[in-house]
Amino acid sequence: MSVLTISLIGGAEAEPKVTEKDVERAFHQAEAASEKVNQLSTQIDQTKQEISDLSGDIDREMVGYREQKDALSSAIVQQHMDAPLGPTVNLLGSENPEEFLDGLGAVQALNSTRTDQLEEFGKTAEQLQNRREQLQDRQTALASDKKDLAKERDKIKAKHAEAKRKLAQLTAAQQSRLNSSNTSGFDISANGRAGDALAFAKAQLGDPYVYGGTGPDGWDCSGLMQASWRAGGVSLPRVVGDQYQASQPISMGALQPGDLVFYGDMSHNGMYVGDGKVIHAPRPGKSVEITSMSGYSRAGRVG
Questions:
Q1: Fewer beta carbons below 10 Å: N end or C end of the chain?
Q2: Comparing C-alpha atoms, which of 261, 290, 266 is closest to residue 184?
Q3: How far apart are the first and last CA of the chain?
Q4: Do 20-168 and 182-301 have matching folds?
Q5: What rounded mean pLDDT belongs to the chain?
Q6: Residue 41's pLDDT is what?
Q7: What is the per-residue DSSP string for 47-95?
């Protein structure tokens, strides 16, 4: 029995000691999940707008559809009232060749007009059906995105809980160091739109990081960049990857104050302030701060 106990104890592996890098990595994974939530939320808003637009199109097209349908129905009813067996029947008994030819020409013209009406009605009906199919497609996409959104929000909670668990395993001194934020100001050396964007970002130093935060009292990374450049007169998309696509890619060696800098996997971004420093909204537990260029590998120019 004692030999078995020793064997079990010897075979057990102790959990690796948590480091400060482990904690930062765990919080970063939670932030990356938050960016996915931001992206899905943006998609849902766009899909809702598309559904609203399509519904409006359908309502307007239904008016024309009903008008064309009513006009065709009235014409058909009137034709049968005037000549139950068809307009050509009245002509068959005519002994006047000129009367017959004149009447036949009128009937052909009537049928031609009705053919045009039917063709136009067919086009309207087809377009209306296409709109309805598009609406159904967008409604299906919306339902799917909402399910994905709920799953991603659950991931944020799980990853955040894991990050907090790892943080709790550090010493008090380590926790204090990790959660401290450098909120000392910087001299703005940019003019125009970039200067306005930097001034706005600087005014947010010390504001807390908030998942999905777009201000005015809490921010996530892309929310802060969007609001800062809005103050500079430029409209940026909501999420990190889209903000990179909306900017002009530049080399890291060409950075100027106000340029955006990004992690390579598009999970985080910030704004270059000069002297190798970046202002950003880092992660939960910290505030908008000034940090080094560590982790940033791509850059884009705005404005």
A1: N
A2: 290
A3: 75
A4: no
A5: 84
A6: 92
A7: HHHHHHHHHHHHHHHHHHHHHHHHHHHHHHHHHHHH-TT-TTHHHHT--
Could you give the CA distance from residue 257 to residue 232 in angstroms, rounded to a whole number? Answer: 13
Report H helices in the chain.
2-11, 20-82, 89-92, 97-168, 172-179, 192-203, 221-231, 240-246
| Lookup: tokens for 90 | 């009245």
Mean pLDDT, rounded, for 219-239: 97
Arithmetic mean of pLDDT, 107-131: 74
- Find out if CATH 1.10.287 is the number for domain 20-168: yes
Q: What is the pTM of this model?
A: 0.70
Strand, helix or coil at 241? helix
Write the single-letter amino acid at 168: A
Q: What is the residue type of 17?
A: K
180: Cβ–Cβ under 8 A, 6 or more apart, which residues? 286
The gap from C-alpha 80 to its chain's centroid, in whole angstroms, comes to 56
Does the pLDDT of residue 275 top 50, yes or no?
yes
Share of the chain above pLDDT 90, in %: 56
pLDDT, residue 14, reads 54
pLDDT interval class at 81 (50, 70, 90): low
DSSP labels, 175-204: HHHHH------------HHHHHHHHHHHHT
Domain coordinates in residue numbering, the chain: 20-168, 182-301
CATH of the domain spanning 182-301: 3.90.1720.10
Residue 82: the pLDDT is: 59
Among positive and negative, which fits the CA dihedral 241, 244, 249, 252? negative
